[in-house]
Specification:
By secondary structure, the protein is an alpha/beta fold. The protein contains 19 helices and 24 strands. Strands 1, 2, 10, 11, 12, 13 and 24 form a seven-stranded mixed β-sheet that branches. Strand 5, helix 6 and strand 6 form a beta-alpha-beta unit. Helix 5 crosses helix 19. The longest helix has 18 residues. It is globular, with a radius of gyration of 23 Å.
């Protein structure tokens, strides 16, 4: 194994200190047109697009380093998470999950989450993005986002014989010739035939071409971020940074540098003018400055933290932490959303060979497939997590009448009972949630938006994310050590309807596995187990077993929401922070209402659109 990887030419060691310290001394006190905080998904996109104009100088600040290990390059490794490139604070105790705590996934690496995620790159439904526009963000609906979905991506289909063998479909009109490479692998496990047989037996399920056309509920062939030219992981680094690194002297990236505080000019108006950074190498603090804008791209956990530690956020939290209030903005860190995920497991008595478990339980096969990848860039090592997925609307999880009933009960709730305390003291935040709630209630009654999904690999693992959460969490300062990692509160199941629907999702997954087509695999439910039948039995099991219910699918969003200020927004539709000049946010924290799929494609498109918005300001 080691010799194979060495022969592939991949570095097997973390970057040396010499490599990481090449630029940080030189930027001390320097001024750039734009300073971007975060060298991940959105930060590298925006930096690339702004430096297309040679007159624009851009500095990108990244707390992590370059990662050239096999885990960052070979698609197969997307089946696990490389924790060596993460900052992983523990969450606050989750009250509705027996006060359990959870690891919070925050990437700290050049390329951000695109280096460590599961490589899924689906888009949400048209209705998901139209909801953003309904919340007051003109130009951010599906029609406004589609050009940027296309601009960011390039899809390479499988070989013609594979397309025919598996009846693989896609919609070429929704892709462009962008830098992010998407691909459906030529390798598929034989039991994928059976998986699709089960898809076809689900009542009312549609089969649109491809998962990127905005159709929402349906069964799809789903592309991964694979570069088909060499069957490696396509990341924000490989797509947006590496191709221009040596040719754009106006683009600078410093690594191993943590942004600790924003620097403001308090003249007639409040304006962000720079960033204080601390080196992970020598521990020294340095200041860098921006002529035009400071652009925050640190993600939905670290962006609100940086704002709060700089004095922008809810005044009550800042004062409690001993932070001087620069701008009272209660929306910073509120509206936190993620995709909690129910996971069922089935033992399969008669799986085909090979299957997704063969590499771990058959040493001879494992050695063979690594050699195959080394020699030909084919086989399971060249494939990512899954290409087969089915999305369900709430009506398909329950029934049309039951979905209507859920929507009615949602609208009848006293929202304040099921939201963090700050919503009771801030009328704008409460109005914003009620506006979101009205949209969700409407979506629940239709088949235009997905409530859950099943991405299936061909073994007995059956995860189902809860794509439209009603509960809202928060990201706030650690009150005793405000400059340390933030406090993340998921508040999973804070709204009891989320609990009820999680049980319904378990039942929906069971119905799929009871399909006649699946019986050739001999499935027997292992988790939770057939003995868990009543709603209370299922719910108690989920709450007590962290492997059966993930509080997070590493899809954090919403903590600097793009909404009107009167609805508790943090940034306007032009992405500028309310009340502060020269300060923008361009990452997943601006998402006002989480989309019903993985967030990678959405964040790429947000960043592409953000770059055009910022360039238009001149």
């Amino acid at each position: 194994m080691t010799s194979i990887l060495a022969a592939l030419g991949y570095a097997l060691a973390v970057q040396s200190a010499a490599a990481t310290s090449s630029h940080h001394h030189a930027v001390d006190g320097a001024t750039f047109d734009y300073v971007v905080v975060g060298g991940g998904t959105s930060g590298l996109v925006v930096a690339n697009r702004l430096t297309e104009n040679r007159r624009n100088t851009v500095l990108v600040i990244e707390r992590g380093y370059f990662d050239d290990k096999p885990e960052a390059i070979i698609p197969w490794y997307s089946n696990a998470v490389d924790t060596s490139v993460l900052v992983s604070p523990r969450s606050a105790p989750n009250p509705k999950l027996n006060n359990s705590t959870h690891s919070v996934t925050v990437a700290a690496v050049v390329g951000g989450a695109t280096v460590v995620n599961g490589m899924g790159c689906d888009r949400g439904s048209k209705a998901d993005y139209d909801a953003w526009e309904e919340l007051g963000n003109h130009g951010w609906g599906w029609n406004g986002m589609l050009p940027y979905f296309k601009k960011s991506t390039n899809f390479t289909p499988p070989s013609p014989d594979v397309v025919d063998r598996w009846n693989i479909t896609w919609n070429p009109s929704v892709y462009g010739k962008g830098p992010v490479q998407l691909h459906i692998s030529n390798f598929q496990y034989p039991d994928i035939d059976t998986i699709w047989g089960g898809f076809r037996q689900q009542p009312g399920v549609r089969f649109p071409p491809g998962s990127s056309s905005g159709f929402g509920p349906g069964a799809y062939w789903s592309a991964n971020t694979i570069d088909a030219r060499d069957m490696t992981r396509s990341t924000a680094r490989s797509a947006y940074y590496d191709p221009v690194n040596k040719t754009r002297s106006n683009l600078r990236l410093v690594i191993g540098q943590t942004a600790t505080k924003l620097i403001f000019d308090r003249g007639k108006t409040l304006r962000a003018k720079g960033v204080r950074i601390i080196s992970g190498l020598d521990g020294k603090a340095r200041n860098v400055y921006a002529r035009r804008e400071v652009i925050l791209a640190a993600g939905a956990v670290m962006t609100p933290h940086l704002l709060q530690v700089s004095g922008i956020g809810p005044a009550s939290v800042l004062k409690a932490a001993g932070i001087k209030v620069v701008k009272d903005l209660p929306s910073v860190g509120a509206n936190f959303q993620d995709h909690a995920t129910v996971v069922l497991w089935f033992n399969l008595s008669t799986p085909s060979f090979p299957n997704p478990d063969s590499m771990s339980n058959n040493a001879a096969y494992n050695a063979t497939v690594w050699e195959e990848y080394f020699n030909n860039r084919t086989g399971p090592v060249a494939a990512a997590n899954s290409n087969s997925i089915i999305y369900y609307s709430l009506s398909q999880v329950l029934s049309p009448s039951a979905a209507v009933s859920i929507a009615s009960r949602l609208l009848a709730q006293d929202a304040r009972q099921y939201l963090p305390a700050i919503y009771s003291t801030n009328s704008a935040l409460l109005r914003g949630f009620k506006a979101q709630r009205a949209i969700l209630a409407q979506r629940f009654k239709t088949n235009t938006s997905s409530y859950t999904a099943q991405p299936l690999r061909g073994n007995g693992q059956s995860p189902s994310p809860l794509l439209k959460p009603l509960s809202r969490g928060s990201v706030t300062l650690n009150l005793t050590h405000p400059e340390s990692l933030p406090v993340v509160q998921y508040n999973t199941f804070m709204n009891p309807i989320d609990e009820e629907l999680a049980v319904a999702v378990v039942r929906r997954s069971r119905r799929y596995w009871a399909s006649p087509a699946l019986q050739k695999l001999g499935p027997t439910e292992r988790q939770p187990g057939a003995e868990y039948q009543t709603d209370s039995q299922i719910l108690d099991y989920l709450k007590a077993n962290p492997f059966a219910l993930f509080a997070s699918l590493a899809h954090p969003s919403g903590t600097c929401a793009m909404m009107p200020e009167k609805l508790g927004g943090c940034v306007a539709s032009d992405l500028r922070v309310y009340g502060v000049e020269g300060l923008s946010v361009v990452d997943a924290s601006v998402i006002p209402l989480i989309s019903g799929t993985s967030l990678q494609a959405t964040v790429y498109a947000i960043a592409e659109k953000a770059a055009d918005i910022i360039k238009a300001r001149g």
